[in-house]
Structure formats: structure tokens, C-alpha cells
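Extended Data, panel c. Modelled sequence:
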Amino acid sequence: MKEWIFILLIAIPLVSSIQISEFELNPAGTDTGNEWIEFYCGEKTDLKNYEIINNDGNKINLSGNCEGYFIYVFEKQWLDNTDEKIILRENGKLIDETKIADDSKNDDSTWQFCDEWVFKKETKNQKNCDEKIEEEIIQKNGTKSKSVIVEKLAENKINSSLIAEEKNIETIKLTGKNIKGENVNEILKKNNYAIYGFVIFCILIVFLFILKFKKGKYKNEFE
């Protein structure tokens, strides 16, 4: 258990609080001044040591503070509509990168990260995953009713919470077992039986030794 805690303490600082969450390669109309990248920061992050690099190797140094959603808008066309990729680095260290993406639609569709990179209607300054769930609900139910979407979203969140609770309960149950699946209490009982058996064995040996000693003593007296 201590080893796992030690590993987690080492791994936690390696997890970055900033990631690329969405980007627009081919906006409606002209690309100049309309291309953008959305970052998500789990905590307030100073961007002075961060830079972004496109698939052509061009670099841009970032600045300002990121907390929650942070939108960087390019002053001129910087992203290609095909074979494009964005890399985020801090002091030369890789922090995050996108997949190689294409965008042939001259509209408000963007590439967004939600467990994986997906291409759909933009969700600038909003959660990507909830929007994905809404689209799945519309496709499944054949309705665009907001009341249905809200109800289903609430249901999904409740189900997710229940699944998480079940996983936690299962984890608690599993902590009482070793690798072979034996119960800890059973192992302790076996160990106790072994100890008791060893003590009894020692007492028996001592008893036999004393008995033998007495027999020898009596034999010498009679002789």
C-alpha cells in the first residue's frame, strides 16, 4: 500500500493542469482573425513559459493567465485546413498535442476533445462532452426538446454517479483479498493455527525431554 502511495505522489506533479480542448481550422468566411484554439486549465496557470507549434513548425509564445477556458485567437491565418496538428510545450517540454486533423467545412464545426478527438459544432467556452451527449440523445430520441435533453443529461449524471459508487464499493471489497483471492481473515486464521501448532509441538518436545530425563534418573538410582 505504501508503495502505491509513493508512486501516486510522484505521478501527480507530472499531470498537467492545462490541455488543448478545442480548435477551429476552417472558420466560416475568411480564416484571418477567425482561427482559434481553446485551452482548458484545471487551476490558474501563468502562460508565459508556454508555446504552441503547428505542423509546419511555426511557433507562437503564449502570455496571460489561464483559468477555466482560455481562447487564443490568431491575428492572421496560422492553421492549415489539412494535415494540421497543434503542439503545446512548456519550456520545451511537451505538455499536450492534438491529432493530425482536416477541416473541409467552411463553417462553425471544430475539433474537440471529449475522451477522443471529435469533429462537430463548436462549443467555445463550454464543455465538449455535454454537447456530445446532447447530440446522441437527439439522434436516439428523434427530438430536439430541451426538456428531454435536460432530463436525459440528469439521468446520465445520476447513472455515472451510481457507477462510480459501485466501483468504489467493489474496490473496498477487493482490498480485503490478496492476489490469489484469499480472504485476509482466513489467512490470519491459518497463521494463528500454525502458531498454535508450533507452540504445542514445542511443549510436547519439552515434555518428552523431561520424561526421558526422569526415566534416566530413576534408572541410575535403581542401579
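The longest strand covers residues 36-46. This feature is highlighted in the accompanying rendering.
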